[in-house]
Amino acid sequence: MHRWLLLSYPRDYRRKRGAEILETVHDTASTSRGARVAANLVRHGLRTRLGRPASRTVVLWASIFALACGLFAASFGTWLTWLGSRPLDHNELAAAVSQLYPDKRVSHIDTDDPPSVFLIYGSPLSWSFASELLLGDGGEYSLAGLGASFDQLPADNRPRVLAELRQRLQASGWDYTEPVYSDAYACIPDDPRCDPATIPSNITVYAQRGDDILEVSINDDNTTPKMSLALTRSTPWSAYPVGVVAFVLGTLSGWWLFGWASRRTEGRHPLTQGSAKFLFGFAMLLWWAPILLSTSLMLSHHLSEPHLRWHPLWEWLGQPVMSLPFLCGCLMLALVLGVAALPHRLPADPRLAHR
To answer: Which of 208, 242, 315, 345 is the least buried, fewest Cβ under 10 Å from its Cβ?
Structure first.
C-alpha cells in the first residue's frame, strides 16, 4: 500500500528518494500506527509537490486554488446529472391541476413539454445567448418549468383560498410547506404611500410529490386576483454522490496542477515569477469574489423562506451570472501555465565547475 501512496510525491522525487522513503516507512511501521504513517506519507507528499520549501504561503494559495477547482468540478458534475433527470411532461401538470381544482376552469395551461432541462429566455442554451451570459443576464438560465393559472379568485377571502388549497394538496398526496408572504412590489420605507395594508401581496406555497415540485402563488392585487401554478423537478438523487466524487477529483487535480506550475516556476527569473504570481493572484480574485458574494446572498435567501429544492451549486458560485470574471480568471491561469511550460535551463552543478 505504501508504494501506491508514493504517488502523492512528484515523479522526479520518487525516482530519487522513493526507495529511501519506503525503507524508512518499513522501519517505522512496526512501532507506529499504519494509518498515521500513511497519513504522514500523503501529507508530506502533497507538500513536496508544491516545491518552494522556504515558502510559508504556498500551501495556503494551493488550498485556495484546489478548493475552487473542486467546487467548480462539483457544480459541473451536478449539472450533468440534471441533464439526465426525468423530463417534464405537460400531461402531469394537467393531471395535477385537475386533481386540485376540478371545479375551476384554467385561464392558461402549458400544453407543450419544455425543449430542455434548463432554459434561457424560454429557449435552450446556445451560442446565440453567449452575450447574455457574459454581460450579466446569466440569471435567466434556470430550470425549465410548466405553468398554469386561474382567474376570478375571491379577492376578499384569502384565508379561505389558502385553507382550501392546503386541504386539496393534502388530499392529493402533496407535502406542502408553510406559506410565504411577500409584497407584490417594493416601495420606499417610511414613505406615506408605503402602507402595508394597501400594498398588493403574494402568497406562495411549495409542495412536493415524488420528484415533482409544485409552486402555488396566490396574487391579490385587489383588482384581478389570481392563482398560478408552476411544476418543476426535484434535484436528482445522483447529484449528491456525483457532486462529492467530482469535488474530490477536482480538488486533487487542482492541487496537482498548482504543484506542477509552482515547481516549474521555482528558481526562474524574478520577472517570470513576478508575472506568474500577479496573474495567479488576480485570477483567484476573479474566481473567489463571485463565490463569496453569491454564497452569502444564497444563504440569506434560503434562510428567509422554505426550499424543497435548493438552488443548484453553480448558482452558489455566482454562475452563470458572473461567467465573465470566471472566464477572465481562466484566461489568466492559462497564461500562468504557459509561463510555467516555457523551457528553462537548470542551474549547473557546482561540483562540475571544479573539474
So the answer is: 345
Rounded distance between C-alpha atoms, residue 172 and residue 147, angstroms: 18
- The 10 Å CB-count burial string (b at 16+, else e) for 90-126 is bebbbebbeebbeeeeeeeebeeebeebebbeeeebe
Instruction: Report how far Cα 77 is from the mean position of its chain's Cα atoms.
Output: 10
The per-residue pLDDT for range 157-197, each reduced to its tens digit, is 777 888 888 999 999 999 999 988 876 666 666 665 566 56
Bridge partners of residue 150, in order along the sequence: 227
Interatomic CA distance for residues 131 and 143, integer angstroms = 20
Q: At 332, which helix (H) or strand (E)?
A: helix 323-341
| Residue 222, amino acid | N
Distance of CA 228 to the CA centre of its chain: 29
Supply 171's cell numbers. 388530499
Q: For the chain, which residues make up each domain, given as ranges? A: 1-50, 57-84+237-344, 85-110+145-233
| Residue carrying the nine cell digits 410529490 | 209
| pLDDT tens sequence across 18-55 | 777 676 767 666 555 667 777 777 777 788 888 888 78
Stated pTM of the model:
0.85
Rg, Å, the chain Cα set = 28
The grid cell for 165 is: 388549497
- The set of residues, in sequence order, having a beta carbon less than 8 Å from that of 166 and lying 6+ positions away, is 176, 205
Residue partners of 2: CB distance under 8 A and separation at least 6: 22, 25, 26, 29, 37, 38, 41
Half-sphere exposure of 321 (CA within 13 A, CB side): 16
Where do we find the cell 458560485? 317
